[in-house]
Amino acid sequence: MNIAGRFPRPKPKPVDNRPHAVVIGAGVGGLATGALLGAKGYRVTILDPLDDLGGRAYAHRQDGFTFDAGPTIITAPWLFENLWRDCGGQLSDDVTLRPNTPFYRVRYDDGTVFDYSGDRAAMEAQIARIEPRDVAGYRSFLDESRRIYEVAFEQLAHKPFHSLLFTAKTLAGLVRLGGYRSVYSVVSKHFRSDKLRTLFSFHPLLIGGNPFSATSFYCLIAHLEGKYGVHHAVGGTNALVRGIASLVTRNGGRIRLQETVTEIETEGRRATGVRLASGERLTADIIVSNADPATTYGRLLKAHPRRRWTDRKLSRGDYSMSLFVWYFGTNRRYDDVLHHTMLFGPRYRGLLDDIFRNHRLAEDFSLYLHRPTASDPSLAPAGCDAFYVLSPVPNLESGTDWTETAERYRQKIASRLEETVLPDLARHIVTSRIATPLDFRDRLLSWQGAAFALEPKLFQSAWFRPHNKSEELDNLFLCGAGTHPGAGLPGVVSSARIVADLVPDPATLLAGSWERTRRDAHP
User: Fold this and answer.
1) Where are the alpha helices (DSSP H) in 262-390?
2) For the whole model, what pTM was predicted?
3) Using CA atoms, how far apart are residues 298 and 212, in angstroms rounded to an integer?
4) If we measure between CA atoms, which residue out of 462, 58, 107, 44 comes closest to residue 248?
5) CA pair distance 137, 129, nearest whole angstrom
6) Per DSSP, what are the bridge partners of residue 88?
7) What is the pLDDT of residues 311-355, one digit of tens each?
């Protein structure tokens, strides 16, 4: 009896002959790029070594608590609305963004408190209590911030700087904006009070920059926040990550976790595919790297002769600071602590010199305290609070032995929090974990354990930063914090859009892709 004849044969799966885009890294930049490429007509495969989505925007879940691992401040929500629109969806169908008011509470070392918001009258009243003459300076600073924003963000943040001709055309405007000045020098021009100079210049630290050397273009953040507000995602930033991942899969893209790319394979001026730690090879028509550019060039293209991003150039770069992050949950709530709190230490410039220039772990620190349960109690068990506290520290160039130092450093931070905003903290901690520069190096594959790739100084920005279209290979593209326009959620989403605009129209690649797709047999 012919048993096989009694059952219909299953229909073969249709061959997906779209050109293949391999994206290395499932961080926000990689996922957003993958979503846009899928909407453009590419077959997308995203590869990431972690066991879950997000990269730096990963979420730790333990003992009933959810801790966003990295970015928690969402500005420019319209960038995400546009991302969803261009991928055929609507942001509000997948993610809920809610505003934070005030944006932050700032606590100085002497106990002075300042609530930073978009309410200009409230801001001016607080400024007047510190230095009445600086109210006028606040107004003039916001005017300058707006002018910088209108050029550096609205006109240039979504433009690629891989062309010297384009850079030359924009150079005059960039000079008029005063990009050669530092953020702190611009702020100091408007404010007399040291407290207010600190308050209005600290923002570059949120994207890995030293206010005393970061280009003044980052003064635009004051206007950006004032215009669009500061938001959080219900469920945590990782809920936003998962929403972006759904845009990838809806267009037929695949996300493969716990897959480490060990090499980008090349022939001449083209990347042909990637090799995985398992030995598997994936062919590709284009490759997009969301990895740290120094890792992309120094490790994944180690065997490829490089003209610009040589090992020598990579080693001479100035890399951002790293971070020490302590995640903890308490069995009580601290309802007088806001969603975002900045706790400034006794030193400002001296501490930043130690972090960025001296590469020395100081005894003092400034802290960012994140309490998401102030806005979203679902991130902790009933009656509990979820926190993380972040301290900027030198990257691994400091030589600090974090295996020996981490617990002592954590205890110092815990004592400081207990003395200031979290009384009786030690008795109420029920879950805890830490991340050090070693985690940034070993888990996130960041060069020197730097949390934000290259430091955003003038000559490491725009054309001087690793280009979104690689100088080394014709079909390699870069997105994420390490490339233009830089770190922060707006920056990495803008980098995704730049890449999506730069890649070839998939229709032009279709004929050549057909045979490769058949050989690849759906990675």
Assistant:
1) 293-295, 311-316, 349-352
2) 0.92
3) 29
4) 44
5) 14
6) none
7) 999 999 999 999 999 999 999 999 999 999 999 999 999 999 999
